[in-house]
Specification:
Length: 174
């Protein structure tokens, strides 16, 4: 009987221990479950916070994407206009350079013509000065010759006048 009492006591103690273990386990499970629930709520709150931030960031990205698209279109439009203006200016510049080159060539041609005409004028001035000198000498020679002829004429007239006066004197003396 003692054995049976021991067995019974042992069985009761075992059952009580088992009940305590089960209760402890349930308590631990409930604590773990409570911790898990709290952690889950924290994680859920954190997730919601991050989702809000993500939604805000996505909204900002969408706004910035829209702005970027609009600015890209404006840039492309401005770039197109500027590019077109540059092409026109480049074309004008090229036309002006061509015109300038043509004008320079014409100017050089005119300068050559003027230089040729200047040399001709200088040559003609020299010829004119030479002819003027020759004409001046010729006039001086003609003046000298006229003076000589006048002198000779006067002398001849004087000699002839003296010669007649002698002849007349000679005839009156006879």
């Amino acid at each position: 009987m003692t054995e049976s009492l021991e067995d019974t006591t042992l069985s009761i103690v075992f059952n009580q221990l088992q009940d305590v273990v089960i209760t402890q386990k349930k308590f631990m499970d409930s604590l773990c479950s409570e911790d898990e629930r709290r952690e889950h709520e924290k994680t859920k709150a954190l997730l919601e916070s991050h989702l809000d931030k993500l939604q805000y960031a996505l909204g900002e990205i969408e706004i910035l994407t829209t702005q970027l698209t609009r600015e890209k279109k404006l840039f492309e439009s401005s770039f197109g206009r500027i590019s077109e203006r540059v092409k026109k200016e480049s074309s004008k510049s090229q036309q002006l350079e061509t015109k300038c080159t043509t004008i320079k060539a014409e100017k050089e041609k005119q300068e050559e013509i003027l230089a040729f005409k200047d040399s001709k004028i200088s040559e003609l001035k020299k010829r004119l000065a030479s002819q003027k000198e020759n004409h001046q000498r010729h006039l001086e020679e003609v003046n000298i010759q006229m003076e000589q002829e006048a002198y000779i004429s006067r002398n001849l007239a004087t000699k002839q006048g003296q010669g007649r006066g002698r002849t007349q004197r000679n005839s009156s003396l006879r």
